[in-house]
Amino acid sequence: MKLAIGADHAGYYLKEQVKEFLKSKNIDFTDYGTFKIESCDYPEYAYKVGQAIVNGEADLGILICGTGIGMSITANKIKGIRAALVYDEQTAKLSRQHNDANVLCMGGRLTPEEEAKKIVDVWLNTSFEGGRHEKRIKLISQLTGL
Ligand code: RB5
After folding, report:
1. Which of 8, 54, 102, 143, by CA, is between 20 and 30 Å from 46?
2. Which of 42, 73, 74 to mutate for ligand 1's pocket (most ligand atoms within 8 Å of CB)?
3. CA distances in angstroms from 142 to 54, 119, 137, listed in the order given
4. Distance between start and end Cα atoms, the chain
5. pLDDT in the model for residue 4
6. Rounded CA gap, 29 and 125, in Å?
7. The domain 2-144 is classified under which CATH number: 3.40.1400.10, 3.40.50.150, 3.40.50.10420, 3.30.70.20?
8. Is 9 designated active site?
9. Smallest Cα–Cα separation from 3: which of 120, 146, 137?
10. Is the dihedral of CA 42, 44, 76, 112 positive or negative?
11. What pLDDT does residue 116 have?
């Protein structure tokens, strides 16, 4: 499994912490930036990570901005992306079980580092349940064309 990770300036610090966590678990990832703390625009990084998944360069993605909101709005406009804005372990788990989320969005200014690591851990270790949820995932694409 390969991950794509990205952040804007407001998510940069938490991205670096999440990267350390991924390394400690031997999880393969590519960092799509930003690589510095100077102000930048979150849509660029959401687009890069989303495209990496759509193009098959990565299986799953993690996006971090100040709130996670801008990243989730942008990523969800890419066909094939199901981005979930998550603030705790329960929503992390449900976003995989019920929604087959392929991008995890977090708020770098709102989610403490230790909580973020727990969120990433549970998100990566939870599978889609399928069944009745499969039909609903297909319906998202059918109704929106995304
Ligand atoms: C940057 O100030 C902030 O607006 C951005 O990181 C994000 O929270 C937007 O949704």
Report:
1. 143
2. 42
3. 17, 30, 9
4. 24
5. 98
6. 16
7. 3.40.1400.10
8. no
9. 120
10. negative
11. 98
Q: How far is the CA of 76 from the centre of ligand 1 (A)?
A: 16
CB contact at 8 A, 59 and 101: no
What pLDDT, on a 0 to 100 scale, did the predictor assign at position 82?
Answer: 98
| pLDDT average per 10 residues of sequence, the chain (146 residues) | 98 98 98 98 98 98 98 98 98 98 98 98 98 96 95
Placement of tokens 């392929």 in the chain:
102
Give 72 Cα–ligand 1 centroid separation in angstroms. 11
User: For residue 103, with 0-12 CB atoms within 10 Å meaning exposed, 13-18 middle and 19 or more buried, which class applies?
Assistant: buried
